[in-house]
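Continuing from the previous page of notes. For each protein in this section, the sequence appears first, followed by its structure tokens. Read the first protein now.
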Amino acid sequence: MIKELVTDKAILSKRCEKATAEDAEVAQDLIDTIQTLDEAACLAANQIGVTKAIGVWMDDDDQLHVVYNPRLMMGLQAARVEETCMTLDEPVVVTRFNKAKVYFEELVDGELVARRHDYTGWESQMLQHIIDHCQGKLV
């Protein structure tokens, strides 16, 4: 279901709870919502008012991916970059790693399966943005 974006900093700054396989409906709401937003590259569950550690992001081939309980394991090549956010008014400058090793879970046949993946560039930046949202960090 398409959800309205939340701009309430009290919700956005709250650390998200661990997601479970039963939160698949939240993931679908994120997919439905991001597909209606112009120029959106990623979206976290707290941005639609649900404090669960789930995010969706679009890769370089415009394919959507869902991550449950993402966590940054390692980052290399830190740089200051300007970012925008769908739920904040102004762009901000943040430190992001050009290379990131990310742990996350993926829903496979109704069960969450642990994954680790290395990301670079834009995809690395988006995943770090989602992880910040899940930790309640406002960029």
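Done with the first. The second protein uses the same format. Note its length before scrolling.
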Amino acid sequence: MRTYRTQQGDTWDLIALRMYPNLGGEKLTDILLDANPAHIKTVIFPANVILNVPDVDTPIIENLPAWKR
């Protein structure tokens, strides 16, 4: 598990986008919320809050069309 130090004005979806840019970004906001229950009511973060950032398994898609291989 990694950590993230917030910047003034960060929001959960923005942090998710920064931490999971190739995995859907803000669609993984719930993973961040689950890993940081002490901050669940925070909407806009101040600077220097340390958050846990869980690792996410990258799905392996085997049946890709020819144009995506």
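What the second structure shows: The chain has two helices and two strands. The radius of gyration is 14 Å. We return to this in next week's lecture.
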